[in-house]
Design goal:
Domain DC-UbP/UBTD2 N-terminal: 16-113
Strand order of the largest sheet: 2-3-4
CATH topology of the domain at 25-103: Bacteriocin As-48, Chain A
Number of helices: 4
Helix content: 40-55%
Structural class: alpha+beta
Radius of gyration: 16 Å
Organism: Protea cynaroides
Protein name: DC-UbP/UBTD2 N-terminal domain-containing protein
Number of strands: 5
CATH superfamily of the domain at 25-103: Ub domain-containing protein, DC-UbP/UBTD2, N-terminal domain
Largest sheet: 3 strands, antiparallel
Pfam family, one: UBD
Strand content: 5-15%
Region (Disordered): 1-36
Length: 114
């Protein structure tokens, strides 16, 4: 009886809570438009890095929303979070998904477009 409950609890403890990435700085100041373009280029080419398109789509949705919803998206898609900031994830088949910080948050030297 106790063994079943213990393994259930242990499995729940392995699920990582998603958090925002640590502050980062782009090599040179970057505008909002440039950042958006970099993100669009990454997401347009991401399926070519390997893995499944539906997992890339779920990761994009998670990256572009608030943390509580991102957590639900990741869990429902069966994504295994290796880094709590989503920079490294795996799908249930073991394929690795690496996300650059620029798709997850804004740099500290971002220049707002006027």
């Amino acid at each position: 009886m106790g063994c079943t409950g213990s393994s259930q609890k242990k499995q729940d403890d392995n699920a990582k809570k998603i958090r925002k990435p640590k502050p980062w700085k782009h090599p040179q100041p970057i505008t909002t438009t440039q950042l958006r373009q970099m993100r669009d280029e990454f997401w347009d080419t991401s399926p070519h890095y390997g893995g499944r398109k539906e997992i890339w789509d779920a990761l994009r949705a998670a990256a572009e929303t608030e943390l509580s919803l991102a957590q639900a998206i990741v869990e429902s898609a069966g994504i295994i979070v290796a880094s709590a900031d989503l920079t490294t994830c795996y799908d249930e088949r073991g394929a690795k998904y690496e996300l650059p910080k620029y798709v997850l948050s804004e740099p500290t030297n971002l220049i707002r477009d006027s």
